[in-house]
Write a structure and sequence with these properties.
The chain is α+β, with helices and mostly antiparallel strands. It has five helices and four strands. Residues 39-149 form the DUF4829 domain.
Length: 150
Amino acid sequence: MFNMKNKKLRAIFFLIIILVISGIVYYKNKIEWQYNPIKVIQKSFKFKNKHDYEAYKKCYKYPESIQEDSIDNIESVNIINIDKVNDANLYKSFIDSNNIDEEEIEIYKVKYDIKFNDESKSSIGNGEDEIDYILAKDQSSKWKIYSWGR
């Protein structure tokens, strides 16, 4: 009888350990992307595709500049490639005008394919396009999309 009770207690103990470890791994994976600038860009595209406006805004340093209808018109958007920009003048210009340390920004050129539900409501048409994303670290060392454009 005593031996059976020990086996049950051990099984419960190991089950609790497995659940705790699973929870930690899940939570770590859930927030880890915010500490990698490329993953932030990838997630922003993923959230655009899902029309998840609230999650999409979390990718941006200034979420108030994002309009919900800007992603509602997107049928699909897919990244073709992401390349780091190494133009020292571009970095210097951004650093000087925004008072940011060089280690706290990264710039990427993103080539993507986009399809709109109503192309007439967009300033760009369906098809491939390229845009630069400037990412900066916030106070908690998470990367945020600071700016984007051509």
